[in-house]
């Protein structure tokens, strides 16, 4: 009773119940930032000299590279919210987690996008009743095993065609293992999806537009934060560093895993970067291709904004360790040694 009276005491006065205070959203803030950037262009140019060389180029490249796939992801998310009834997912995915997680992981092959677009889709899947472990398995598998990524890998590694199959196996195995671990050890209070206005089954275009706008403004801001962090770290790592780690297989695996996390490359283009490391053993290159689509600084920022900080600080280390181990083991099996 006390809580009810307290709630009533906090209600707005009569006649103002339907009047909402205007608050600037992400798009308004972005517009203000762009306007200030134009007005303060000369001071910003002088200040940018303190940044590492090439920082702005890397930052813009990451944003431009990721934005189309982020848009694809939120469009798919909007379709799920507005046109796909919740009962569809309960009918498609098995009820048992032991089957739902691998099935969701295999479904990732159907989405031609990168990791930026898979975050809002996984969030929407949970919103539609999919168990978190299965949605997270899809989140990890979609950017790693979709056809666009596999074709790009085949083109980049024409001299090593087994890399395509090795990447497919490592990416899917990472998604299934992480999903299975989360099913057993994850707690509901660690995962806090963004609160949305209730959406019923198949509400049509108004619900679609509302879901797309909400998901995009939510994810885009954290994409920018992650891209800024990735650009800063990418321009700080010296190029000569890679020449020193290539002589040690263990060191090269660890270095490539850290670089994949730091560089935050799009999964459609990371194969070309991995292939360019001529001094790195092929196992290290596979670890790079396994870790990158699963966890990087950009993804940590987006997942923190979408699912909550308590989720990100647990999910990111788990994914990183599993991806490194799975990538290493898969590389040894496919390439027959530490070469």
From TrEMBL:
Per UniProt, subcellular location reads as: Cell membrane
Membrane topology type:
Multi-pass membrane protein
Pfam families per record: ArsP_1
Q: Which GO terms describe its cellular component?
A: plasma membrane
Q: Which residues cross the membrane?
A: 21-39, 59-85, 97-122, 134-157, 164-182, 216-233, 245-265, 271-295, 315-338
Tell me the InterPro entries matching this sequence: DUF318 (IPR005524), UPF0718 (IPR052923)
* Keywords of the record: Cell membrane, Membrane, Transmembrane, Transmembrane helix
Q: Which PANTHER family match?
A: UPF0718 PROTEIN YCGR
The similarity comment for this entry is:
Belongs to the UPF0718 family.
Protein's recorded name: Permease
Organism, by scientific name, is Nakamurella endophytica
Q: What is the lineage of its organism?
A: Bacteria, Bacillati, Actinomycetota, Actinomycetes, Nakamurellales
